[in-house]
Amino acid sequence: MPTVHLNNIGLYYEDYGEGVPLVLIAGLASDSQSWQPILDELSLHYRVIVFDNRGVGRTMPQDSKMRIQDISDDCISLIKYLRLSSVHLLGHSMGGFVAMDCAIRYPQYISKVILAGTSALNCERNNALFLDWSSTMGGKMNSEQWFRNIFYWIFTKKFFEDKEVLNDALQFVIEYPYPQTKIAFKNQVNAIKAFNCINDLPYITSEILVISGKEDLLFPYLESKKALQTIPNVHFSFVEQAAHSIHTEQPEDFINIIQHFLKEGNVE
User: Fold this and answer.
1) How far apart are CA 208 and CA 171, in angstroms?
2) Is the confidence at residue 251, as pLDDT, over 80?
């Protein structure tokens, strides 16, 4: 798959399917491969474009400067490189920050936007938690313990009842051939902490869908709804038996909500 050189980085991306373009933007410490649970199905209906955010995966160098706005600029530069006049965006968690920033600063390129497991800013509890993750990364805690500690926050209690699924997920992240460096993770954490678009929300012109996991601990449904309700054309939906990693735990429900929104313009 190709790498394009723009904005002083080598941006890795993948391009699937045909039709209306849908760009997927991953969250903290996640890259293009985090969309695997929904990629095949979505690419049957849309031209799906995924990329590795700066600071993660095969986008290099990983220690490049990092603001949410920098990732937004990379996303728009990729859209221009691919000669796309406009796209739908789907951003998860930190990727939701990026998607909102794109809609605010580059509205001419953005059609509809789906925000999954996110808000307009990070709360102080989450900022402290992410900094703790950063400080313990690569320390006395081994990789399995470190990732398991993150899993406690992003998956439901039910997820941990299936030992085979849990072990497969741990094995995947531990053995992933393109690991994120400690400094790159910290840079992403600091970028999240610095982002706040709450005052810009009333100026968003795109139609927005906010999807929350009913059991999300990081961005609870009611908190996200309260924070994002000033977006003029916004819809809210939640997925049962899902926590923060909605598309991993409930991919079918997640896709159904997305398709209905992109086709009908609402989730009612």
Assistant:
1) 35
2) yes
